[in-house]
From TrEMBL:
Biased composition (Basic and acidic residues): 78-100
Species name: Lasallia pustulata
Annotated protein name in UniProt: Uncharacterized protein
Annotated region described as Disordered, given as residue ranges: 75-121
Length: 121
């Protein structure tokens, strides 16, 4: 997939889908085509001012794609990943707090030793 973006927001916003010929049934690399074969057909979709959900729906319609429902195992895995992310975020906050407390303590110790310049760093 190639995405070309421009800064010109007033210009067209076109999503072009190029359909390649159906692959052969052979899985051998020796029979793979040497050069890129031009697309059999191309469909252009004007996506200007469309929400991402609308773009996805239109893309699925054009390509004949079907939404795949997650299996129970996949849902469980996603739940576990979400929990791990939550724990990771809490750990990150705790680590930042510990580092800040250490920095503050070192600054106070430097002040107590009479090193005002060190405390400001």
């Amino acid at each position: 997939m190639t995405v070309n973006r421009t800064r010109d927001q007033a210009g067209p916003a076109t999503l072009t889908v190029f359909f390649a010929p159906a692959p052969s049934e052979s899985t051998s690399a020796a029979t793979a085509p040497e050069e890129h074969v031009p697309a059999e057909r191309a469909v252009a979709v004007d996506v200007k001012h469309m929400h991402e959900g609308e773009i996805l729906a239109r893309l699925m319609e054009v390509t004949g794609a079907v939404a795949v429902v997650a299996t129970k195992e996949e849902e469980e895995e996603l739940r576990m990943v979400g929990e791990e992310r939550g724990r990771s975020e809490k750990d990150k906050e705790r680590t930042a707090e510990v580092k800040e407390n250490r920095r503050r303590r070192e600054s106070l110790l430097a002040l107590a030793r009479g090193g005002r310049e060190e405390a400001r760093a």
